[in-house]
């Protein structure tokens, strides 16, 4: 593999530097590096970040290839600046055996756009009753360390306790989709002023918060680490803040859409805004931003959830929950966190690459941009601002809530172990 | 007037009064030997009912036929919908047959809004009840009934319901009738109080333009109308209230409670009534209960809405002209 010189990039938003990639690794970082024998990428004014890592992606393969495949999903990831994604287990068949996780893992490697690290189901068939063979998935070629029944909550306190304890044997983590099922029967949107008016079934904040409260106490009791998926309420922030202050080993993620959008949008009854957990209120949005800035929330994760057009082109109650996010995540984070002054680019690198790689134990990702490190990098034109155009998405699905919305920032280049997956905004 | 009728909240005071006044004109047609107007001749209206509701459908159908519209009834049961066809495809299929208006009843809140605003079809959309969201023609016929009884048939023309005190009792949480009535009655200047056990009041009600009380007895003496909403027996299985008996003791309207209402005050019910639950048979059958009148008024109101949305500039009722029109 030849050499690539990225010239004049603001590394983590700092002073302009040159970064020389040689083969799969970063050979040198400095000012005025020689471009001899290297392909030059002019990066003046752009920000260079470690390749982004998404701890929460739905790739849909196997089973729902009409909405996304490992290939289209990883192309979308590369397009959004990601070099590693964690694929959720709610496929058909469910990723609850070594066989399924190995298949997903291998597909990611074969396609070569982005590393795919499968997440294993906590329970067989996501049914919440019987532990899946967590150890077998860990020992498989996929080396699974993150386990989640995402889409469903592990609501049985005993099963959750056992899972938290069991994965300690191999340094695993349980990622909880916090949703008390009885409190959310028939739930369609955030329960509050807007749901009262629209006559849509309410998804109360307490259904999330009560599970998080229980799970941080369980994690404390058994001395395990726990990860909270897509935290969405101000109350959840308070609980996680309290848990961290007690020394409980808890991490939490927030999605880009929960940093930007509120339940007021549901007034359109347009299912493109239907997502689980639901869009909350302005107060929640502000609390989530603040928590991501102060580190209470550790990471941004997309919850990229592709759905075919017909599953959104219908009445609200009949529509599927979820939105695609890989190709807009960094823009939304720039809009809500960087341009608002809450986070600098080093902070973005931390929340979108370093920390998620750490939680998921993704080797070779989330590393410093320095000599000797794997060349997993993403280059961002932060001065760009323009409307989101779903027609140009690499994802097979178009269910974005941002169609036509002006957002800042555009990923121009992505390198996975020195190989360009995105050049000048075009997939290779 | 807007092109569609989706929510009672979309109506201005003047829109609403115009509909009520037009309905009074329509009501006179019912007194004629031939109860029919040529207004919508050649126009096609489809009653698209995804939810069983014989009364509402028949009311719309009667209104459409009295206006001489061509009527198509489409019910979801046994149709392509039960075989998995989407709302969009169903609506587009019907429109391809040349439909001018769609009267839709749907179990999903917001389905009529989607139909009117997604670019799926061009026809006018009239909401005949969607999920637990809205049922605007019900609110209009209720307001019409109140105006007639509390203000007067002729005296009411051009008037709203300013200062009238209306109490709605029952399952507010699951009621599209309650939501529509709160919106419309507020627009018409009435003071609305909702009465229910706290379990049947939605979280978020505090922004509604009304009062909320958990005590029926304290509201009776200051009510010009008490409207009872149907309480489904199944609700008690979901712990909304302990038993049917306890509900009716605390929130049911019986003779004793009715006697504590002001003499002029009326008892209303959108139907179907659950006798012995929210209303006793004695109250339901008394002169003060307007349930049957509401049904008759429903036809007039739906005629008025169809005429105003579809009829264009033609006068609804041809009067004998005594003066030259300008």
Word description of this protein:
The complex is a heterodimer of chains A (428) and B (326). Chain A is built from eleven helices and 19 strands. With 428 residues, chain A is an alpha/beta fold. Chain A has two domains: 100 residues, Urease, subunit C, domain 1; 310 residues, Metal-dependent hydrolases (TIM Barrel, Alpha-Beta Barrel). In chain A, strands 1, 2, 3, 4, 5, 16, 17, 18 and 19 form a nine-stranded mixed beta sheet that branches. A five-stranded parallel beta sheet of chain A has the order 9-10-13-14-15. In chain A, strand 11, helix 5 and strand 12 form a beta-alpha-beta unit. Chain A is globular. The two termini of chain A are 15 Å apart. The mean pLDDT of chain A is 97. Chain B is α/β, with parallel strands linked by helices. Chain B has two domains: 142 residues, 3-Layer(aba) Sandwich (Rossmann fold), CATH 3.40.50.1370; 159 residues, Aspartate/ornithine carbamoyltransferase (Rossmann fold). Helix content of chain B is 36%, strand content 14%. Chain B is built from eleven helices and nine strands. Chain B is globular. The two termini of chain B are 23 Å apart. The C terminus of chain B is likely disordered.
């Amino acid at each position: 593999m030849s050499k690539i010189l990225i010239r004049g990039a603001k590394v983590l938003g700092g002073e302009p530097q040159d970064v020389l990639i040689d083969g799969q690794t970063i050979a040198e970082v400095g000012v005025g590096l020689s471009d001899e024998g290297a392909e030059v990428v002019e990066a003046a004014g752009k920000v260079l970040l470690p390749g982004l890592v998404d701890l929460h992606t739905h790739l849909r393969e196997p089973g729902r290839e009409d909405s996304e495949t490992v290939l289209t999903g990883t192309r979308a990831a590369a397009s959004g600046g990601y070099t590693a994604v964690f694929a959720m287990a709610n496929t058909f068949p469910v990723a609850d055996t070594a066989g399924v996780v190995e298949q997903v893992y291998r597909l990611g490697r074969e396609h070569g756009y982005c590393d795919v690290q499968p997440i294993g189901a906590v329970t067989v068939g996501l049914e919440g009753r019987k532990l899946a063979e967590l150890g077998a998935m860990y020992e498989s070629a996929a080396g699974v360390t993150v386990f989640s029944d995402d889409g469903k909550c592990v609501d049985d306190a005993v099963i959750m306790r056992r899972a938290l304890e069991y994965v300690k044997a191999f340094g695993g983590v349980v990622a909880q989709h916090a949703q008390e099922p009885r409190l959310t029967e028939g739930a369609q949107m955030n329960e509050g002023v807007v749901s009262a008016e629209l006559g849509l079934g309410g998804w109360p904040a307490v259904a999330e918060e009560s599970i998080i409260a229980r799970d941080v106490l369980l994690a404390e009791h058994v001395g395990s680490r726990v990860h909270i998926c897509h935290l969405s309420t101000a109350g959840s922030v308070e609980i996680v803040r309290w848990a961290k202050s007690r020394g409980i080993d808890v991490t939490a993620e927030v999605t880009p859409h929960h940093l930007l959008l509120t339940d007021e949008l549901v007034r359109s009854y347009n299912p493109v805004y239907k997502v689980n957990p639901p869009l909350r209120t302005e107060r929640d949005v502000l609390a989530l931003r603040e928590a991501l800035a102060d580190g209470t929330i550790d990471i941004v994760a997309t919850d990229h959830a592709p759905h075919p057009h017909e599953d959104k082109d219908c009445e609200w109650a009949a529509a599927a929950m979820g939105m695609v996010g890989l190709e807009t995540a960094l823009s939304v984070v720039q809009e809500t966190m960087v341009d608002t002054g809450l986070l600098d680019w080093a902070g973005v690198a931390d929340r979108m690459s370093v920390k998620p790689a750490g939680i998921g134990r993704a080797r070779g990702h989330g590393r410093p941009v320095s000599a000797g490190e794997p060349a997993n990098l993403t280059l961002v034109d932060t001065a760009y601002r323009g409307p989101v155009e779903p027609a140009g998405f690499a994802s097979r699905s178009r269910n974005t809530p941002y169609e036509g919305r002006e957002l800042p920032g555009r990923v121009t280049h992505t390198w996975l172990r020195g190989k360009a997956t995105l050049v000048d905004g075009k997939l290779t | 007037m807007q092109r569609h009728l989706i929510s009672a909240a979309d109506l201005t005071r003047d829109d609403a009064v115009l509909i009520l006044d037009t309905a009074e004109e329509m009501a006179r047609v019912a007194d004629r030997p031939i109860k029919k107007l040529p207004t919508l001749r050649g126009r096609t209206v489809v009653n698209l009912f995804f939810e069983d509701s014989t009364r509402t459908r028949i009311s719309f159908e009667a209104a459409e036929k009295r206006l001489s519209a061509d009527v198509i009834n489409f019910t979801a049961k046994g149709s392509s919908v039960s075989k998995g066809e989407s709302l969009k495809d169903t609506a587009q299929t019907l429109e391809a047959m040349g439909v001018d208006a769609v009267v839709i009843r749907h179990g999903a809140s917001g389905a009529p809004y989607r139909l009117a605003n997604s670019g799926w079809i061009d026809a006018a959309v009239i909401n005949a009840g969607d999920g637990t969201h809205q049922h605007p023609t019900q609110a209009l016929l209720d307001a019409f009934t109140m105006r007639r009884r509390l203000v007067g048939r002729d005296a009411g023309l051009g008037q709203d319901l300013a200062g009238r005190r209306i109490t709605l009792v029952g399952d507010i949480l699951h009621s599209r009738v309650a939501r529509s009535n709160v919106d419309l009655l507020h627009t018409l200047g009435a003071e609305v109080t909702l009465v229910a056990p706290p379990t049947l009041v939605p979280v978020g009600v505090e922004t509604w333009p009304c009062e909320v009380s958990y005590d029926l007895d304290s509201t009776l003496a200051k009510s010009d109308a008490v409207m009872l909403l149907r309480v489904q027996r199944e609700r008690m299985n979901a712990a909304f209230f302990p038993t049917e008996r306890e509900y009716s003791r605390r929130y049911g309207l019986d003779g004793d409670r009715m006697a504590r209402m002001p003499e002029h005050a009326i008892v209303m019910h959108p139907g179907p009534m659950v006798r012995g639950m929210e209303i006793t048979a004695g109250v339901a059958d008394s002169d003060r209960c307007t349930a049957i009148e509401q049904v008759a008024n429903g036809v007039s109101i739906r005629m008025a809405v169809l005429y105003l949305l579809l009829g264009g500039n033609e006068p609804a009722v041809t009067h004998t002209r005594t003066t030259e029109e300008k």
